[in-house]
Each structure stands twice: as structure tokens, then as C-alpha cells.
Amino acid sequence: MAKCDEGYLCDVCGQDVAELTDSEMYLRYIVGMLDPEVLHTTPERHIRCNPALAQYIVADDFPPVVVEGPFDKRTLDERYVGRRERLLTRGWRRLNEVAGSHTPIIEYPLPEVLNEIRRRSAGF
Fold first, then answer.
1. With 80 as the cut, is the pLDDT of residue 123 above it?
2. Which of 8, 46, 66, 68 sits a CA distance of 20 to 30 A from 77?
């Protein structure tokens, strides 16, 4: 099978990341953690296959993820955790919003991330 016929395989579990709403790579892109220039070279994984990131999504329709150990959000600064939860939850909601839409990939990010991408590409 040609690589392009395999789909996007999770580099953690090896299974297909079949749904955009499960994509950790696109979630990181939407929230500004991943530059659009490296999307095509970035390994893919399921959001839940990166529990250190997934634990910050706080939504009724996203079952909570608990991390034990040094990356457990319960052991971190509350302000940091709050900011992270707000950002990643907004990002996850945006990911669900663009899934199945005809939104161009360059317009997936949150508004403030899009503004920063535009600012950088304009050379400011």
C-alpha cells in the first residue's frame, strides 16, 4: 500500500486517525502550538494518545483524561492550568466546528492564532 493510501497513522498506537476531531496535530495547529509550515511533516496522533495535552480539554462531550505523575495538571499552578484548559477546550471546540465544513485549512486556527500567523507572514 502506498503511504498516501494508509491515511494518517497515530505515532503512539499505530491506528488510523480517521476523524479530524481526533487529531492531536490539528488541535495543536488550531491553538498555535504548531506552525502551518510544518503540518505536512509533523507526526499525527490521536488526542487521547497524548494524555498530557488531552487532560486540558474540559467539555461535557469529551470524557476527562487523568494523568498521573509530573505532568498531572492537578499538581500544577492553578492559573497555568486555567489558561491551558481555556485554550485547549476552545481549540477542541474549533476542531469540531471545522470538521466536515468547507473551511480552508489555513482558516482553522483560533482568531488570535490566525492574527499572529498573518502578522508573521507580513514580516512584522
1. no
2. 46
Q: Is 123 left (phi over 0), alpha (psi -120 to 50) or beta?
A: left
Residue 91: CB atoms within 10 A of its CB come to: 25
User: What is the domain range of residue 71?
Assistant: 3-101
Specify if 115 maps to a domain.
Answer: no
**What is the residue type of 123?**
G
d(CA 72, CA 60): 20
Note the pLDDT tens digit of each residue in 37-49.
Answer: 899 899 999 999 9
Q: Within 13 A of 15's CA, how many CA atoms are on the CB side?
A: 10
Q: What is the pLDDT at residue 120? A: 85
C-alpha 86: how far from its chain's center? 13
**Gap between the Cα atoms of 47 and 85, Å rounded:** 14
